[in-house]
Specification:
The chain has 337 residues and is of the alpha/beta class. It folds into two domains: 233 residues, P-loop containing nucleotide triphosphate hydrolases (Rossmann fold); 72 residues, no CATH class. Helices cover 26% and strands 21% of the residues. It contains nine helices and twelve strands. Strands 6-7-8-3-9-10-12-11 form an eight-stranded mixed sheet, sandwiched between helices. The protein has a four-stranded antiparallel sheet with strand order 2-1-4-5. The longest helix has 18 residues. It binds adenosine-5'-triphosphate and magnesium ion. The site of magnesium ion (MG) has 4 residues, from helix 1. Belongs to the ABC transporter superfamily. It is a peripheral membrane protein. This is Peptide/nickel transport system ATP-binding protein. One of its GO terms (molecular function) is ATP binding.
């Protein structure tokens, strides 16, 4: 998909951070802080799908909840459709819920088990005072049909559906009010591989039909690539690489992106690989992230500069941005790799 350069972003985050304070100390200064999202800047153009990928605990859900203002932002700026929404109160944000919606990882947990599906889908219309009763029923039937279910499913309870069907209901609910932006937080991670493809195809169809813009979050680069125009790779709360989805996938420039790429299952044809990147050790504790480059403790290329400088996310002429002292196809300051 080509984007007109004159278009304005639908969503723009500038140095967005989310810090959680936890720990039991009575002294505020002793409480531990988690920098779950660390100065993330990104733009999402109308009609585009930005994929966000990274391993468990890197801050993807926190970022997703900040982008939809389901939680407060600690610092930075967030604009939606040209409007600064960084500091809007819960009440002020309510009308915007029609325009930005979230689909969650666990479809079972995100649907109230005691209410019939028809009720769950009618709720957004009632909350926003849209439509008379009979009209809402029609809209609910239409929504069910649109996500591949039947109108009689409205009478059933969530537990009577399979995982994939529950996720279809979650998507229908998010779409009820025709939002502009859908942030999907691991919408297929809980599903079987065969069902994953169906749900991704459904999301892609709906994107075309309703002109939706997506932020699509997953820990699996292959899943993200299937639906995204661009991909942002997250590590310990920060974006370490952003670019065209196919290009990031085929020629990763950040060593961490390459590790994610190499971790993907390959068709047999490619089983004989000349070199295999491996990530050493565990994700460092987000309570005490490493100084300098946050990836240096696991990076095969890192040398002395890691201690002093955190690499900035620098955009190259071809549009790819990488935060690395030793980008894989760029100049290597120490002659490594
Ligand atoms: N409400 C909270 N209070 C305190 N810490 C939190 C809270 N939510 C998340 N965290 C911490 O913030 C960091 C990022 O968590 P987050 O859930 O955003 O990661 P994630 O990338 O979505 O992980 P996963 O892939 O497992 O869903 C983690 O260290 C987590 O423990
Ligand atoms: Mg998550």
């Amino acid at each position: 998909m080509t984007m007109a350069t004159a278009q304005k972003p639908l969503l723009r985050a500038t140095k967005l951070s989310k810090i959680y304070k936890s720990g039991r100390s009575l002294l505020p200064s002793r409480r531990q802080q988690v920098h779950a999202v660390n100065e993330v800047s990104l733009e999402v153009m109308p009609g585009e799908t930005l994929g966000i990928v990274g391993e468990s605990g890197c801050g993807k859900s926190s970022l997703g909840r900040c982008l939809t203002r389901l939680q407060d932002i600690s610092s930075g700026r967030l604009e939606f459709d040209g409007r600064d929404i960084t500091d809007l109160s819960l009440r002020q944000i309510r009308p915007l819920r029609r325009e930005m919606q979230m689909v969650f990882q666990d479809p079972a947990a995100s649907l109230n088990a005691r209410r019939r599906v028809g009720d769950l889908l009618a709720e957004p219309f009632r909350i926003h005072g849209i439509g008379a009763r009979s009209e809402i029923e029609d809209r609910v039937s239409e929504l069910l049909r649109r996500v591949g279910l039947r109108s009689e499913h409205a009478l059933r309870f969530p537990h009577e559906f399979s995982g994939g069907q529950k996720q279809r209901i979650g998507i229908a609910r998010a779409l009820a009010l025709h939002p502009k932006l859908l942030v999907a937080d691991e919408p297929v991670s809980a599903l079987d591989v065969s069902i994953q493809a169906q749900i991704i195809n459904l999301l892609a169809e709906l994107r075309e039909e309703f002109g939706l813009t997506y932020v699509f979050i997953a820990h699996d680069l292959a899943v993200v690539r299937q639906i995204s125009n661009r991909v942002a790779v997250m590590y310990l709360g920060a974006i370490v690489e952003v670019g065209d989805a196919d290009e990031v996938f085929s020629t990763p420039r950040h060593p961490y992106t390459r590790v994610l790429r190499e971790a993907m299952p390959e068709p047999r044809l490619h089983a004989k690989r000349p070199e295999r990147a491996q990530v050493k050790g565990d994700l460092p504790s987000p309570f005490s992230p490493p100084p300098g480059c946050p990836f240096h403790t696991r990076c095969a290329f890192a040398k002395e500069r890691r201690e002093v400088q955190r690499p900035a996310l620098v955009k190259a002429a071809d549009g790819r941005a990488v935060a690395c002292h030793y980008p894989l196809d760029g100049p290597h300051p120490t002659g490594l790799a």
